[in-house]
């Protein structure tokens, strides 16, 4: 590929069935439809989309039945990892045609895709029945082995839970259990370009194991930016967003924060006389 490779990241769709509003407030189906339309209409259009978890709200089959045709409207390949609101078996049943996913939901839904200029490794950081994240020792060993197979391939790790403390009190109460062990694995493999995460419903970045952990904003609602230990579990309707990661073999990986929706502009900086006064 002689042009840059574009990866769009969306996260925390929280889709419900029956046209129900999430938390009685958020039209998550409408938000996802606007996101898909936006990505399809982008110029240049992303080459692939990764979805970093919380695909639906309660992990039910009827919710995945609503999600599936909406993601099928994307005009580019789409790759999924589960979040704490998801359930492995119903997710896998709904997306059996996603050949990169494991055949069985008996364990974590980890996967590898090798067919793009950036190698993709999906990691299932969920704890069934829990809110926080972890990677099992067996997953960390598998990840270490996978990364060692292609040490020259620039690689993205996609997982739901960011492996760090955010400072937003209620989101940190169930922290990533073995973040330090994951960081040691990442540090052994400098070709890990990014860890692409969700869960926190806000754009955030942190250095991690010599790489960068990027958190994607929510496709619909956002977590309130409240850096108090006692921050309550509140959300708001700030503009919905996504991340757009631009890979160029010479220039490396640049991660942009974008928003969905229509806003005034664009306006010119210059006219026939120069910079507009």
User: Low-confidence parts lasting 5 or more residues at pLDDT below 50?
Assistant: none
What CATH architecture do you see? 4-Layer Sandwich
Mean pLDDT: 96
CATH superfamily: Metallo-dependent phosphatases
The CATH first-level class comes to Alpha Beta
Secondary structure tally: strands: 15
SSE string, helices as H and strands as E: EHEHEHEEHEHEEEEEEEEE
The share of residues in helices is 10-25%
Largest sheet: 6 strands, mixed
What does the overall shape look like? globular
Please, how many helices? 5
Structural class: alpha/beta
Q: Rounded to an integer, what's the Rg over CA atoms?
A: 19 Å
CATH topology (level 3) name = Purple Acid Phosphatase, chain A, domain 2
Query: Can you list the strand order of the major beta sheet?
Result: 4-5-6-7-9-8
Compute the number of structural domains.
1
Distance between the termini: 43 Å
Keywords: Hydrolase, Iron, Metal-binding
GO molecular function, one term: 3',5'-cyclic-nucleotide phosphodiesterase activity
Family: Belongs to the cyclic nucleotide phosphodiesterase class-III family.
Protein name: Putative cAMP phosphodiesterase
